[in-house]
Amino acid sequence: MKERDVVTICGSMAGVSPTAAYSPAQPQPTTPSPFSFSVASTRWSSRHSIDISSLLLRFLSLLFSFVSALSLAAPSPSKKKGEESTSFSKHPELMYCFIVSIIAFLYSAFQLFKGVCDIAHRGILISDKLSDYISFILDQLVGYLLISSSSVTVLAIQQIEQTTSLRKPAIVSMSMSFATYLVIALCALFSGYKLCKRIIW
């Protein structure tokens, strides 16, 4: 006797239709857990808040680096009596600080533009994975350039005479360069945090 006939006879004896007795058990639909949605929304909100904070820091580094470069490049005000006017290009240390400030300004402008694009259209400019690696490496490099330029500018300020009109712009440039370094260091921490989360997850 075939298996189907056995199932039919048993189903008839139990008062169940043969079709219902022979049909396999259907899988029950599973209801998605609300915890999965909460975890996903928490991750998205955390990522969004980090992006907004990074965007604000990039704007500050853009502003500080611009002021640092402008303080050296802008012409000095009218000289007072007894002051000597000198150009920052005659001092290699100040020239190095000016070039690094320009590099930091361009890098901050690029990161600011990329951050806006990432928030508006995620991954349209550079993929998230590649962006995290590039930001982490370049933040370290730009931070090193800024702290080195600030250090050599301190030595240049000590060599500049009190009577020259270049001393105050050099002090402003050094201060803004160091402030830019602090902001870039915070950006590097954010970049490292996002990179670690990507590697772990």
Automatic annotation (TrEMBL):
A Gene Ontology term for the protein's cellular component: plasma membrane
Annotated keywords: Cell membrane, Membrane, Transmembrane, Transmembrane helix
Membrane topology recorded in Swiss-Prot or TrEMBL: Multi-pass membrane protein
Keyword Transmembrane: yes
TM annotation in the entry: 55-74, 94-113, 133-157, 169-193
Positions of the Casparian strip membrane protein domain: 49-157
Primary residence: membrane
InterPro entries in UniProt: CASP_dom
Quaternary structure, from the entry: Homodimer and heterodimers.
Family in the record: Belongs to the Casparian strip membrane proteins (CASP) family.
Protein name: CASP-like protein
Annotated source species: Liquidambar formosana
